[in-house]
Amino acid sequence: MIVERVEWDEVGGLKIFLSQGYLLEVFPDTSEDDEYSEFWRLFNRKEDSPHFVVTGNGTKNQ
Fold first, then answer.
1. How far apart, in whole angstroms, are the C-alpha atoms of residue 59 and residue 22?
2. pTM for the complete prediction?
3. What is the mean pLDDT of residues 37-45?
4. How far is CA 54 from the centre of its chain?
5. CB-hemisphere CA count at 13 Å for 13?
């Protein structure tokens, strides 16, 4: 499968639109907002590629 598009919202929800009409929808089940909370992380499997991270404090690139 191929990732065609990604959408996210302000509360940490995530939709990954895949080829062949598949959709993966994710939502956080906690409201923690400290520096160690992490809802999800999106990254390429290539070595040293950047990560897109959604935490209780918002989004960031690593």
1. 25
2. 0.63
3. 79
4. 6
5. 6
